[in-house]
Amino acid sequence: MIYLKNYINGALISPKSERYIDNYNPSTGEVYGQIPDSDLNDVNTAVEAASNAFDKWSNTSKDERSKILYKIADLIEQNLDKLAEAEAIDNGKPFSLAKRVDIPRAAHNFRFYATAIIHYSSESHHMEDQAVNFTHRDPVGVAGCISPWNLPLYLFSWKIAPALAAGNCVVAKPSEITPMTAFLLSSICIEAGLPDGVLNIVHGLGPKVGEAIVSHPDIPLISFTGGTQTGKHIAQIAAPMFKKLSLELGGKNPTIIFDDCDFDQMLATVTASSFDNQGQICLCGSRIFIQKTIYDKFKLAFIEKVNALKVGDPKDPSTNQGALVSKSHLEKVFSYIELAKEEGGSILCGGQRVQLEGPLKNGYYLAPTVIEGLDYLCRTNQEEIFGPVVTITPFESTEEVLKMANSTKYGLASSVWTKDISKANLVAKNLHAGIVWINCWLLRDLRTPFGGVKQSGVGREGGNEALQFFTEPKNVCIKYQ
Ligand code: NDP
Q1: Quick one: 142 and 83 in the same domain?
Q2: Binding site membership of 197 for ligand 1 (Cβ less than 6 Å)
Q3: What stretch of H or E contains 393?
Q4: Could you report the per-residue pLDDT of 381-409, keeping only the tens digit for each?
């Protein structure tokens, strides 16, 4: 049994209450660890440590901060196998995916912001012969960072790295469902020489630890990634306290396939954009719209591809689909498959749990599922499922597909497949989404603004956007004599 500890003021410590929560391995359904069931007392200690460390860290030179972040990135890379294995066990995702995507990206996040802060410059505005304005960009103080379970270290570091680079101290909470790599990061930060109190990681439940962070009077900014409902709740607490707020929330992303696309390239990528990480990526395309002229061809080829995906042991290199993250999430996703049937949908493949053998027999496996025949306004096509379930829907015109694609309350990401650049531009311009990929998916340049519109979020992460969020501008106007 592994007992995790909080990372507060540079030390690994138990929660004050000495209470713990079970941590499950989703590939076996067994408890394999204990997570601190922290509460307000632990958050208060963490905030105190972070507040005490702030003066020194914010006045540490950018070069020095950058060096430490580089060291963290190096250590993440040196521990690639260990971290990837921990992520696979904790989350249920294939080890090969964690090793290829999650952990390298976590290292990249630290390295990206280690360099970004060195090159970060602030604005100046010249008023001809009257005055000059220049704008300081100062760290804000103690940042609260809260992240979800689907890409645990990848998203945790996506917040922490820019916050620390900009000179803030951090109190962070990973999802209690997948806390392991955040715990391992604590030791990495100690080894990298991150000063005590600069980063504090408090494990525990959202309504206890998360809410204590959000409502703490000494945390002036909150960066949150998670579900739209939780985001709404957080906004209600933070808004009257006038906190800076960055919310990266849910999605119901459209994939739009025109008949003039590169079919083979599209097919390979759309299989990945539908089912990578068991469909548990906020950017996955869960509503696939196909031009009527190639609908039948697509349907046949897609089902063949999806049926070939191997659902299996996350440790097995030949596995494409691991386990869903938890029993309750599996049940939620499954309930949407039942709903789709009630709404008149036909299950073209998948639709059932997969029972593996031996120690994996109680794991949370679900066959990748494709559904057709649903109205674009039905609940299955409007609500976020966040699992290996997609719907396919034919369309005739660009106007029609835009109407269907834009019909949800979400607006995170989208992907469009066509060789016609004018059509691609027209669709990109008219999609209600923060991110549009043309003839690709999840091709990420970390300098670009990342986030969604409508109920998919408020604000943007990435590049300068994150550095702007984690700093407060102060304009100084100097009048010429
Ligand atoms: P949740 O909203 O349930 O949880 C996200 C985080 O918030 C967790 O750490 C959770 O803790 C914590 N939390 C829960 N309740 C509170 C609260 N009252 N106050 C403060 N913190 C709280 O989301 P999931 O973890 O289920 O993640 C899946 C969701 O995240 C999906 O909707 C997905 O679309 C979205 N997402 C969005 C991304 C984006 O960039 N837009 C990227 C990735 C995911 P605990 O785990 O203990 O409940």
Answers
A1: yes
A2: no
A3: strand 389-395
A4: 999 999 999 999 999 999 999 999 999 99
